[in-house]
Design brief:
By secondary structure, this protein is of the alpha/beta class. The protein has 16 helices and 21 strands.
């Protein structure tokens, strides 16, 4: 039988997923494996890249088995992963340190320094503003705080590129992830000597840049042995997870947005050109001659999981079952959660505040509030944060009347309806709302299984639609106003809390030193 399956592998913040699809876009099989995140200090977020590779080796055979397929049935494979996250190798090809994730906040001081010196110039060259989530300030942190590690770097990989190199032995990145490092010139698509010079980064450690659909190699004999694919299977470069998700959701033209309810939440819309601005994020898109503009909130499904694990999950219980129970409890609560508000700033915030010192809160609690109110308030609070994102995009002349939903949070019918009501737009759910699906489609584009990118995206099927209810939309418009007032009132207090925690931490450190050395 001729090879007629495509594989997409996506590295998420908490898990790696492998999806096997047929050429008609139907999901044939999938498998996932958890990825552990380390937070050795407040605001830090790191992972061991070798854990990613072990997850690939585990999930590829399981996904093929679920599809009832053999390695010879696979036409091509591609990858996606979070932008900004980097893997650093030395001259011997050894990984130097854990990967600093996109949601890591340690480079706040470095970000402030970059903004102070070159804020407008960075935006002009890179089409984006320096923030702690980007590779540029993260690598400035590395230079300042781990100079020995900085000096050892001979190759920088973006996360999906390091994983892909395990299959092919090659070294490259795509145009989208290159812009995502904030070390590339957005107008030329090449690395920027000027941006790299701002942090003293050697250009020779940066990989060649290719289009996301480029076939960069084939599966080596050793990789075939480890992951269960056929030697010689074509491997397509791939791209960042949000690019793959928006593409896999069918965002191939203006007027259609994508809302991502994953570890973080994003609102994305296509544009013919970038919109450099201090409040939004700009990337080239998989669709030729297009960019997608993003506004993003840091905590979404991660906040949902935090609420579950902290207040709802009991020892020995299955986490997914608890999510279902929480959803039922929230469904029984009236819209507006009887005045309970939630701000999802568990790890600072991006759009539109760009403030790593903001803190999460539940505001307006009373004896009338039970467990379901807190779940509904979380759903609504994240939707209000998405409304903040949409307002930021509309200020740039970007808008949509229909949004496709992606990410794990999209599984909740209640949450989908809340998003539709808060944003006051129609919400559509694709049959497969995963970055791994978009990566698999991209693999097919790369090997010519589809005529072009738009042709592949026609395989996207819609399985559910939520339309906004006018009465609820009006209520949530008022609620969003209150949400914004509370945020503005608490922001300076959040900053003082941060200083309080920092002072308390320095005092504790001093006391430990006295005990240790006294």
């Amino acid at each position: 039988m001729a090879a007629d399956l495509l594989i997409g592998i996506d590295l998420g913040a908490g898990a790696l997923k492998t999806s096997v699809i047929r050429l008609d876009g139907a999901l044939a099989g999938e498998a996932s494996a958890p990825i552990a995140t380390s937070a050795p200090y407040p605001g830090w977020s790191e992972q061991d890249p070798h854990d990613w590779w072990r997850a690939v080796c585990e999930t590829v055979p399981r996904a093929l088995a679920a599809a009832g397929a053999s390695p010879r049935d696979v036409l091509a494979v591609s990858f996606s992963a979070g932008a900004h996250t980097q893997v650093l190798e030395d001259a011997d090809g050894a990984v130097i340190r854990p990967a600093i994730l996109w949601n890591d906040q340690r480079s706040g001081p470095e970000t402030a320094d970059l903004r102070r010196q070159w804020d407008a110039r960075i935006l002009e060259i890179g089409a984006n503003r320096a923030n702690p989530t980007w590779t540029l300030p993260q690598m400035l942190w590395l230079r300042r705080h781990e100079p020995a590690a900085f000096a050892r770097v001979r190759r920088l990989y973006v996360a999906k590129d390091w994983l892909r190199s395990r299959l092919t032995g090659t070294w490259e990145t795509d145009t989208i992830d290159a812009v995502g490092t904030l070390m590339a010139d957005a107008s030329t698509g090449g690395w920027s000597p000027e941006l790299c010079a701002m942090i003293g980064w050697p250009l020779e450690t940066l990989p060649p840049i290719v289009a996301p659909k480029t076939v960069v190699g084939t599966v080596t004999a050793e990789a075939a042995r480890q992951i269960g694919l056929a030697e010689g299977t074509p491997v397509v470069c791939g791209t960042s997870d949000t690019a793959a998700e928006t593409y896999g959701a069918g965002m191939t033209g203006e007027g259609l947005g994508v809302v991502k309810l994953a570890t973080a939440a994003t609102v994305s819309v296509l544009s013919r050109h970038p919109r450099p601005d201090f409040t939004v994020i700009n990337y080239p898109h998989i669709m030729p001659d297009h960019w997608y503009v993003i506004a993003a909130t840091n905590s979404c499904a991660s906040a949902h999981k935090w609420l579950r694990d902290t207040f709802f999950k009991r020892a020995g219980e299955d986490g997914s079952a608890v999510f279902t129970e929480m959803d039922c409890l929230a469904s029984a609560v009236r819209p507006g959660a009887e005045g309970l508000f939630f701000h999802p700033y568990l790890n600072g915030e991006r759009s539109p505040h760009w403030d790593p010192l903001l803190r999460a809160d539940f505001v307006g609690m009373g004896f009338n509030h039970g467990p379901g109110h807190f779940v509904r308030a979380l759903y609504e609070g994240i939707a209000y944060s998405l409304k903040d994102c949409l307002v930021a995009l509309r200020a740039k002349g970007l808008d949509f009347s229909t949004a496709r939903l992606t990410g794990g949070g999209a599984k909740s019918a209640l949450w989908r309806q809340i998003v539709a009501d808060v944003l006051d737009v129609k919400v559509e759910l694709p049959a497969v709302a995963e970055a791994s699906f978009g990566a698999a489609l991209l693999a097919g584009v790369g090997v010519g299984a589809y005529a072009d990118e738009a042709d592949a995206a026609r395989r996207v099927a819609i399985v559910s639609t939520a339309t906004p209810d006018p009465e609820r939309a009006a209520l949530y418009a008022r609620g969003h106003g209150l949400y914004c007032e509370i945020q503005a009132a608490l922001a300076p207090i959040n900053h003082r809390i941060h200083a309080f925690v920092a002072d308390a931490g320095s005092g504790a450190t001093a006391r430990r030193d006295e005990v240790t050395h006294g």
